[in-house]
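Example 9 (inverse folding). The structure is encoded as follows.
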């Protein structure tokens, strides 16, 4: 993976509290240490100074700076003096990636991967890689090690390595995503192919079959790609030994109708459509009463008439005993230390009033395993049925 330098702080504590001297944009220092003297060189124009042989031009400086940045990456500076380094996850990448196309967000791809029955060691086709959000999430779901024996995390013996066979027809997006995959050390997990799957099918760059277990289509016209997802043919992209789960990601209901019609004609079963609408639910306990006085996040008012009358009597007695309010609050805080506050109060909840955004409609379907007479005969030999009825 690419390394990145982190500078812990750029806070200058030595000049804190002092007024910094404002430097004018026109004040420049010459490279040989000679400052520009406007009094002595009054007759000489500034333009001739900037265009002298000893002073590099602005274009030369920018080219030198660019070449220096390519050689040495610029360190990241934290103005507050603190740097929090988090472990990279698909969720963090989804929230920070460059939106080259429509992005599949966390609520959608977490549900999609669960419905597609994706697990470590599976092979999944992604048609329409786009910005790479779903690519990273699928790579985590199928990862069970690298295929190379010399890698740090090799695949255990007897298991096939999980793969994400990703396709994208837009060549500039392919080049950017391929570089991101290399930077994130996913070359052995994600196999990116530049191909128009609607016209050219789902073969890999070397012409082989991906032998996939699941399919995810994020295309403008997914029904055009379904004709290539069949078990017939000499080089089918589907795994012949397992049922195939498919998901189509479509923002318009007209696309859903066309996709469902094509799925039915192609023999797919268990067709359903889902729209994920995420809402945040805030659950907490509402504590009300005079015994909550002095505590944070509560309503310190009388919960009923009895508490109000009791507080009135305490106020009358306070005048006689000269007990301060601070003493009463200290007493209530000491009593709160022995109380189980997480069990007190009424349990209430509040959800968000509106859905933040509509992402897309999710169409799911299953293509059952092809069963021939040879498969039936082999199954009968492996699982024999004994006749227990005596004749």
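The amino acid assigned to each position is listed next.
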């Amino acid at each position: 993976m690419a390394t990145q330098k982190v500078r812990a702080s750029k806070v200058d504590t030595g000049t804190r509290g002092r007024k910094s001297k404002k430097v004018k944009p026109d004040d420049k220092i010459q490279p040989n240490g000679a400052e520009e003297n406007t009094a002595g060189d009054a007759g000489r124009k500034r333009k001739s100074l900037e265009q002298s042989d000893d002073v590099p031009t602005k274009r030369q400086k920018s080219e030198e700076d660019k070449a220096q940045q390519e050689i040495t990456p610029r360190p990241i500076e934290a103005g507050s003096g603190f740097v929090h380094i988090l472990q990279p996850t698909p969720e963090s990448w989804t929230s920070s990636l460059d939106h080259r196309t429509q992005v599949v967000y966390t609520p959608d791809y977490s549900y999609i991967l669960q419905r597609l029955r994706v697990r470590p060691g599976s092979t999944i086709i992604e048609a329409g890689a786009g910005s790479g959000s779903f690519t990273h999430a699928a790579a985590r779901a199928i990862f069970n090690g690298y295929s190379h024996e010399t890698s740090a995390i090799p695949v255990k013996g007897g298991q096939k390595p999980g793969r994400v066979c990703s396709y994208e027809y837009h060549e500039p997006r392919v080049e950017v995503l391929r570089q991101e995959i290399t930077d994130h050390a996913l070359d052995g997990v994600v196999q990116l192919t530049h191909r128009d799957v609607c016209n050219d099918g789902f073969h890999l760059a070397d012409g082989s079959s991906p032998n996939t277990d699941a399919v995810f289509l994020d295309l403008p016209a997914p029904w055009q790609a379904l004709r290539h997802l069949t078990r017939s043919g000499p080089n089918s992209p589907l795994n012949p030994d397992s049922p195939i789960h498919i998901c189509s990601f479509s923002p318009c209901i007209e696309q859903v109708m066309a996709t469902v019609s094509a799925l039915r004609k192609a023999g797919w079963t268990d067709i359903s459509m889902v729209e994920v609408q995420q809402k945040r639910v805030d659950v907490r306990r509402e504590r009300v009463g005079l015994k909550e006085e002095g505590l944070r996040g509560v309503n310190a008012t009388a919960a009923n008439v009895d508490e109000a009358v009791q507080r009135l009597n305490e106020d009358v007695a306070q005048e006689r005993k000269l007990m301060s309010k601070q003493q009463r609050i200290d007493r209530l805080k000491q009593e709160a230390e022995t109380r189980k506050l997480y069990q007190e109060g009424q349990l209430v909840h509040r959800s968000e009033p509106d859905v933040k955004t509509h992402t897309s409609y999710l169409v799911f379907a299953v293509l059952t395993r092809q069963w021939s007479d040879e498969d039936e005969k082999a199954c009968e030999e492996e699982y024999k049925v004994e006749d227990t009825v005596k004749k």
